[in-house]
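Notebook p. 47: complex prediction with S-adenosylmethionine.
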Amino acid sequence: MTTSLPHYHWLASPEGDRYLREATEWRRSGLTDLKIGERLRAVLDAERSALVLTQIDLRDRAATKFADAARMLFTRAGLEQSTSEQIAHHRAGRFAGSPHIVDLCCGIGGDLMAMAALQVPLTAVDLDPVHLFLAEYNARLVDPNVQLTTILADVREVEIDPMAAVFIDPARRTAGGKRVGYQSEPPIDWAIGLAYRANAVAIKTAPGIPHDLLPEGWEMEHISLGPDLKEAVMWSPGLAGEFAGHGQYRVPPHRATVIAGSEVHSIRGSHIDVLHTVEPMPGQWLHDVNPAVTNAGMVWELAEAIEANLIDPQIGFLVSDSPATSPFSTSYRVLEVLPWHEKRVKQALVALDAGPVDIRRRGLAGDVPTITKRLRGTGKQRILLAMTRVDDRPTAIICAVE
Ligand SMILES: C[S@@+](CC[C@H](N)C(=O)[O-])C[C@H]1O[C@@H](n2cnc3c(N)ncnc32)[C@H](O)[C@@H]1O
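Predicted complex, structure tokens below:
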């Protein structure tokens, strides 16, 4: 069955809404999907029954991304590609004060919903008619009176208001759903060119985007939700933070942001003198750096902020004599440090009464799931094992998880 716009019009109608509510109640009361399907088919045709079942499943899945998921409407692909609410709100904050915001490639409206809360005139563009319809439906849940113009078109064909701030979240999957790194449709180069046509531009992209694609005067922000790195945003000068100076005096235009619950923590690039590396020792603390910081290339900045040392100029682990209280890293007490040799590491773990082992691999090759299986013990001590390089030597740093 291909789900088309009329199906979604029905789901959004009072009748569709009634069945969605009923089916949700049945699911909450413990009825299996098989039974719910039977009940639905007793009153609806097979197509609409399947639509309702799929939609209540998508709403349940969406609850980790959106507080209001139980009222929103989704497509499966649209949900997977959507920005979660916490990140969308953080990002939308920089658009406050713009006279007009244009959301290009709006999808099912994850970002548009956060923009709808700003009470600014909005324009949303997508070439998928279902996504465009759902973007408007979901944005009106935030503000029923939102000033919103929707345009069903290829974004390359749309005229851009030169006074607008433009946000673009280009598709990063093939038609078959495969992820394609930072390659996107439309491509990043095209999105960067929007800066010549609008007042300001923000581009959501994959965290692995090469830093040298960032044009002069722009900012790149890497964003994690808790420990998980989610995305990078390229901000044109009109929306970028203050990065003083020019040329060699310019502060590196990077920012790492970690969102944890309702708290948002950011650090910015700065000029750092060369830092020395130290050998980690038992009794010290190893700091596992959040991937937003490592991908932003800001491990040195964090080392300075938490008064820790590098173990290697290229590696995202830091070490110091005390644990750090930082949203950008997690600290573990070092129990043992030895050259990386799996058999010797296993012996050391047995001697430490190791139970579950959580491996962080940085700078060494190896298949983490397989090695984890081989090293896992039956003891009581939970272990974090850094499989890494210290001053370029393959090293195991065995730490306690307390
Ligand atoms: C990554 S999703 C957007 C997700 C959205 N920001 C959200 O939070 O829900 C990308 C969207 O771009 C649309 N798209 C891809 N190429 C496009 C193009 N050339 N013109 C307009 N829309 C396009 C897709 O239909 C899809 O809905």
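Notes: The chain has a mean pLDDT of 93. Residues 81-83, 105-111, 125-128, 131, 154-156, 169, 171, 185-186 surround S-adenosylmethionine (CB under 6 Å).
Next step: compare against the earlier run before touching the bench.
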